[in-house]
Structures are given as C-alpha cells and as structure tokens.
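Example record for the data management plan.
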Amino acid sequence: MGKTETRSPSRLGLLVGVAAASVGVIYGYDLSNIAGAMLFIPKEFDLDTAGVQWITTMVVIGEIAGAIIGGWLANRIGRKKSMVMVGATYAAFALMCALSVSVPMLLVARLLLGLTIGVSVVVVPVFVAESSPANIRGSLLVAYQVATVVGIIIGYLAAYALAGTGSWRWMLGLAAVPAIVVTLILLRMPDTARWYMLKGRVDEARRALQRVEPNADVDAEIAEMSRALKEESGGAIREMLRPPYRRATVFVVVLGFFIQITGINAIVYYSPKLFEAMGFQGNFALLILPALVQVAALIAVFVSLVLVDRLGRRPILLGGIGMMIAANALLIGVFVAGDDFGGALTALGFIGVLLFTVGFTFGFGALVWVYAGESFPSRLRSMGSSAMLTSDLVANAIVAGFFLTMLQTLGGSGTFVVFGALALLAFIFVYRFAPETKGRQLEDIRHFWENGGTWPAESPAAETVTK
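Corresponding structural encoding:
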C-alpha cells in the first residue's frame, strides 16, 4: 500500500493525457471570448446590467446541469465517448451562439454550450487520472489547467482582433474550431483500463493498459484494479454519503465551492468592466491587458505543473491561496484610495488583478483537477468528480450572476473585502482538511478516508504527510 510508481510513461500514455487535457482549450476560450463579445452584444440587443449578467451566467447554469449528469454519463458510455460527444456538440452550439438573432436564442445556445462544458469538466479529470502513472498523474491533471489558460488567452486575443469591427458573432463562432480539432484527436485515443474493468471487460482493459503503459506489470495492475473494485460496494450517491467516503464527499464539495466563490471568474468574465472601473479605456487596454494577466497565469500554472509531483499538492494549494489573500488586500487599498484612478494607483490595480489571477491559477486552478481526479476510488470517481465540479459551478453561477451588481452596490473595496474574507476561509479549510496524495496509487488513496482523514501509520509516507 502506498508504493510510489517510478517507471517511465510511454509516448502513447503521455499523448492520451495531453489529448484529454487539451479539452481545456475549449473551456478556456469560452470563459474569455464572452468577455470580449459582451462589449458589443448589449448594444445590439439593448441589454441592461441584468441582461449582461444573464447571458454571462446562462452558460454556467448549463455547466451545472452538465456536471450533474457528467459522472453518470462517464460511467454509462465511457470516458472517451463522453469527451468525443462534448467536442462535437460544443462545436455545434458555438455556431448556434454565433447565429443567434434574438436574446432568447442566444440564451438557449449558451445554456446548451454550458451543458457540454459541464460534462467535460467532470469527465476530463477522471480520464486523465485513470490513464496516468502515479509519478506524473499530478502533472497531467495540471496540464488541463494549462490548456484552459491557453484557451483564455486565445479568446482574449481573438476578441481584440475582431473588436475593431465589433464582430462578436465571429468571436463566439470561432470556438467551434478548437472543438473540432480536439474531437478528431480524441477519436484515436483508447478508453481507460479502469473503466473497462468497471464494466467487467477484462480483455479490453488488458489491451488498453498494454497500449498506454507497455512497461507495466499488466497482470499485477489488473489484479489490483479487480481487488479494489471488489472491495468497493455500490458506487451510487448513497455510497458517497456513508462513511468512510462521506468525509471525502464533504471535502471535495466544500473545496469546489471555495474555488469559485473566491471570485476568479468575476475577473475572467468581467475583466473589461473591472479595468474600466480602474480607469482603463480602449479595446487594447480592455482586452489585451486581461490577456497579459493570463500569460502570467500560464507561467504560474507551468510552475505548478513542474512542482506538483515534487513538492506535493498541499504546499502549492496553500501558496496560491496566500497570494490571492494578498491580492485582495492590495485591491481593497486601491479602491479605498478613491475612484479617481491614475498613475501609480491604476498600475497597482493592474498588479492586484495580476497577483490574484496568478495565485488562483498556481493553486486552486491547477489543483481542482488533481483533487477531482484523485479523491475517490474507481466506482465513485466520476460521481465524486461530478459532485465537486457541480459545487464549483454553483459558486461560479453565483459570482457570474452578481459580480456587476456587487461592484455597483458595494463598490470595488467592498467587493474585494468579501472575496478576501472567503479566500481566508478557504486557506483555513485547505490547511485543516486537504490530504497530500503525491506519488500514491489511485487505489491506495481511499485508505486516507477509511482511516478517518489521516494516512494509516503503516503507509510508507505517513510520517511526511499531514492531514
């Protein structure tokens, strides 16, 4: 139990993980392209603040529904088929957004688009976790966040390139391109051995494992998966609500909620509005500055990717949240100093947004996919991921639906006081309850929850891992 795997991953094993993680480009592009499009959509459809928030939030409502069914779908038809379906339907709904001729049509298209994204954010961490050797699993799960940030940057750059002509339909419609590319790549990938074992298809599990990890002891791994599946009863929601996995369920649901309620997507969705409030003007400032923030975030997530399987999960997560707390303090100070931004204050506001985003991406943004993929055993993994990401998206919907109203009623200082307090609570929660799962086999992580939230004393890494 707890043995760390040291063999080198195969080229196909890496390709499978990277291909699955590339789905993050779709998610990231959607996060930022709507920020650019919303500079022009309100004028075309004569929208007020509530209308802007509804169009922005509708995709998140769809994501919640997608996350709820994502776990069931991943178990029913497989991890790979679920992701192929996501890519194909996302492309179709992106084109529907671009062709919308009325607000109701745009709202429906955004809802359906969100449905596909919601499925993807549940299935991808499960697929990557189940396809990756323990010694690089964290890095490949963080790669999903890398792809997401790349998608955000592409979305902002595309919005800037099209802003001169106000071509918001092209901003939204171009999202179909990465979706089609990702779908074609995924069609060539095998499903996971653990899913085949879950369905009792042992020969297919053996072939999948041999393809992805040709140097593995296939018989030993198949036997371990079989043993773990036999020890796990049920696999339904009721199993997640009973000991020992009730503790894991509470942990991932609360963590998922903190990840979004601390405000990151307020920054992504409404960066142009926030920079306007700081005194920035013009398409370059309102779209390229947010892109530059995401470039810094991309560097941060690469650092996280390199360190996650070396330092571990907890130090990275706590460090990232600490940066977010510091950024909130800076932003509160900037807004308290007055509404007439200029010179040094404007620069400090930009630095505050930069630090907030970098801190989130380094910690929460990277580690959400790690904990979503690692926290539960095979039968519960997709349902546990679904529960975590559903909680995450509910908080996302709250932030997307109320941020502009908060900014108008509480002001910038009041808004970031709220986010700062939530980040502080998140830090305390993670410090107290987050397990360190570095280097552990997926089948062994369940022992943390079975032992009441601590690693068993006989675990090789027990003395170096804290609760």
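Summary line stored alongside the record: Residues 1-7, 459-467 have pLDDT under 50 and may be disordered.
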